[in-house]
């Protein structure tokens, strides 16, 4: 063999080796796809498809169900495949992928509901393509097996009913009960306004219609997505009968209870914006002997009041808080041990309020929204740091000084007027006796006795009612 021939063979062999190494490295980098199809053990007629790939620089796991129903299967496959194609394209176009920043795609699903009439599948897709953090997307598909079509919100409800308004009302009042969600009222109001878009993500279940609200629709983005399941019986005048139907909608397996649910229609406020209202407030308590007298009088007259309690006293009488709340009264925060907050370093002033807030929460599970600074003394820095509504007063009988029940009563009654807030102290017997008389008399005069929150709400309703001139 000539020298030239030998060299050719060596070069040829080298080329094969290099080629193999490159091929092997690519293979390792992007991996090999494994596909698996198996019967779902929970649901008959359902197959689970799994596509897995575990490469050095990228990996994915894609799971989806198939139902042997062409329209439905086509939609599911096209959803999964287009997400996968897009992910692979992003990977192939990426440069210098760090092994520690391995690309990742995860598609998983929950069979939220599977019955004769319809199925609801909730997909969760997680994608990571080298950024700071990955993104999670949700999609819920509802399919009607009988009608062979996908369901939009409007397909669930009877035409010519104002179903969006009803969904909006239930959702807003229900979500507002969650204190983390009620912090941003304008966003909650916007995110639950009666538009088709706000209620476009849902699952039709056996006993509930569950709505999904993506992050930042009804609450700040960092709180994540939110859900509310509305019991179908609350929707019976607007939901189409085929979706109410108990036998056709019976899920094949038992559905877990929803995380957050509305099972009763929210009660309309019993307050009448056209009737005069006054907010009685009691500071420095609780004190079982005297506070109870006031609570009894409120109960008899179906009235409410607000009790601005001290953290130090809550420690002694934690059980009193439940008694206060039972009748529909409100608890406010009046600091831990009554210092003039403006004289304290900011940190200590804030601690006075925060410690009290924690004590109240621990004793009653209730989180006050209103704060009344001792002596009414506060400033912008404190208000900002505390982040609660500051509640002051219009009528002050100086009951702590006079200690004469007759004089206190006549002062309050002669200064009472619609929309006012009265300051008293429930720790003195003279004040408690005066309060009992005041509660009876104001009720007789036609006043609604309301909490500070109710008074605010009432004033808001009155403004909304006033026609624009
Ligand atoms: Zn006080």
Describe this structure in words.
- With 469 residues, the protein is of the alpha/beta class.
- The chain has 3 domains: 30-150, Heat Shock Protein 90 (2-Layer Sandwich); 161-198 and 208-262, no CATH class; 277-465, Alpha-Beta Barrel (TIM Barrel).
- The chain has helices at 3-30, 70-93, 153-156, 163-175, 185-191, 241-244, 288-300, 311-316, 319-326, 346-364, 380-386, 399-402, 405-415, 429-444, 452-465; strands spanning 33-39, 47-54, 58-66, 103-114, 118-128, 135-144, 149-150, 202-204, 208-213, 226-231, 261-262, 277-283, 306-309, 330-333, 370-371, 389-390, 421-425, 448-450.
- It has a 7-stranded mixed β-sheet, with helices on one face.
- α13 runs parallel beside α14.
- The longest helix is centred in the first third of the chain and has 28 residues, at 3-30.
Helical stretch count?
Answer: 15
The pLDDT mean sits at 91
Total number of domains: 3
Q: Main beta sheet: strand number and arrangement?
A: 7 strands, mixed
Distance between the termini: 108 Å
CATH domain class name of the largest domain: Alpha Beta
- Level-2 CATH architecture of the largest domain: Alpha-Beta Barrel
Strand line-up of the largest beta sheet: 1-2-3-4-5-6-7
Task: Identify the bound ligands.
Answer: zinc ion
Strand content: 15-25%
Transmembrane segments: 6-24
Biased composition (Basic and acidic residues): 249-258
Domain NodB homology: 276-450
Protein name: NodB homology domain-containing protein
């Amino acid at each position: 063999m000539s020298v030239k021939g030998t060299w050719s063979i060596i070069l040829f062999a080298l080329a094969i080796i290099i080629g193999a190494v490159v091929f092997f490295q690519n293979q390792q980098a992007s991996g090999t796809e494994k596909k698996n199809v198996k019967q779902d053990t929970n649901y008959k007629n359902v197959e689970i498809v799994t596509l897995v790939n575990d490469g050095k620089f990228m990996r994915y796991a894609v799971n989806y169900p198939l139902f042997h129903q062409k329209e439905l299967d086509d939609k599911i496959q096209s959803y999964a495949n287009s997400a996968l194609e897009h992910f692979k394209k992003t990977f192939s176009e990426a440069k210098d992928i760090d092994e520690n920043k391995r690309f990742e795609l995860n598609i998983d699903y929950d069979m939220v509901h599977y019955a004769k009439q319809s199925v609801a599948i909730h997909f969760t897709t997680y994608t990571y393509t080298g950024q700071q953090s990955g993104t999670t997307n949700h999609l819920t598909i509802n399919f009607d097996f009988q009608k062979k079509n996908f369901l939009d919100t409007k397909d669930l409800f009877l035409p010519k009913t104002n179903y969006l308004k009803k969904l909006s009302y239930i959702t807003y009042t229900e979500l507002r009960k969650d204190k983390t969600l009620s912090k941003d009222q304008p966003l909650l109001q916007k995110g639950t306004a009666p538009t088709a878009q706000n209620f476009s993500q849902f699952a039709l279940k056996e006993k509930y219609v569950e709505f999904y609200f993506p992050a930042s629709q009804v609450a700040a983005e960092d709180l994540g997505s939110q859900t509310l399941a509305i019991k179908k019986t609350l929707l019976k005048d607007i939901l189409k009968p085929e979706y109410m139907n108990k036998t056709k909608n019976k899920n094949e397996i038992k559905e877990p209870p929803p995380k957050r649910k509305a099972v009763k229609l929210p009660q309309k406020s019993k307050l009448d914006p056209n009737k005069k209202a006054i907010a009685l407030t009691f500071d420095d308590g609780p004190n079982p002997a005297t506070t109870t007298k006031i609570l009894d009088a409120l109960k008899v007259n179906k009235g409410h009041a607000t009790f601005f309690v001290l953290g130090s006293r809550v420690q002694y009488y934690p059980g009193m808080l439940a008694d206060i709340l039972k009748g529909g009264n409100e608890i406010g925060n009046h600091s831990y041990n009554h210092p003039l907050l403006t004289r304290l370093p900011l940190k200590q002033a804030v601690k006075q309020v925060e410690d009290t807030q924690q004590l109240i929460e621990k004793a009653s599970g209730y989180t006050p929204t209103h704060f009344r600074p001792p002596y009414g003394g506060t400033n912008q820095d404190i208000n900002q740091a505390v982040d609660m509504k500051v509640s002051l007063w219009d009528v002050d009988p100086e009951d702590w000084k006079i200690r004469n029940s007759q004089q206190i009563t006549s002062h309050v009654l002669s200064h009472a007027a619609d929309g006012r807030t009265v300051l008293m102290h429930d720790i003195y017997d003279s004040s408690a006796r005066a309060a009992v008389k005041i509660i009876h008399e104001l009720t007789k005069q036609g006043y609604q006795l309301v909490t500070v929150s109710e008074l605010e709400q009432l004033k808001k309703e009155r403004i909304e009612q006033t026609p624009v001139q």
